[in-house]
Design goal:
By secondary structure, the chain is an alpha+beta fold. Helix content is 35%, strand content 23%. The longest helix is centred in the middle third of the chain and has 21 residues.
Length: 204
Amino acid sequence: MKKENILAQYMPDAAAPIIARWIDYFQCEFKISKNRATKLGDYRHPFKGAGHKISVNNDLNAYAFLVTTVHEFAHLLTWNDHKNKVKPHGDEWKRNFKRMMVPFIDQNIFPEDVQSAIVSYLNNPSAASCTDLKLSRALKKYDLLLNVSRLEELPINTVFSIKDGRQFKKGERLRKRYRCVCLDNGNTYLFNPLAEVTLTATGT
């Protein structure tokens, strides 16, 4: 199967030929990985005879997959330009991320809400798209996960569970995070509003 046909299974069709050309141009090993809880994608620079390596999680929706892919290619371009002499997400990476996102913005590949969030995010890209709440919310709207909600969507006192099976009761928001009590051990934890949780019950 042609490279762009495989890529089109994970990202918008119109984006696949562009990414396929990047893979060939940079002679990059591009891997579609299983879900990794700690990261959406990864870039490894050439080392001991091996070339550039990029991996992106296979469970991302098409738009999140594309944003993550561009994010990692911006790391590749930054390494080509500067090697290890600059910060991983410094000004050089930010400029390259903006440059590499242009063709997708120009072709209106993203839905209007996602494109608006990306343009806003591009004014000052952070280390990861998931740290920008506006962009993350826009991207997550296109997730197809069943029975999974964002914590911020649940009412106070809702009981929910996380991936490891522990149950919590949602409490009040403290600045940027929600204070939640673990029903298994009584300890209190702070959760990101965009944490993906499974609804269990609503308290009183």
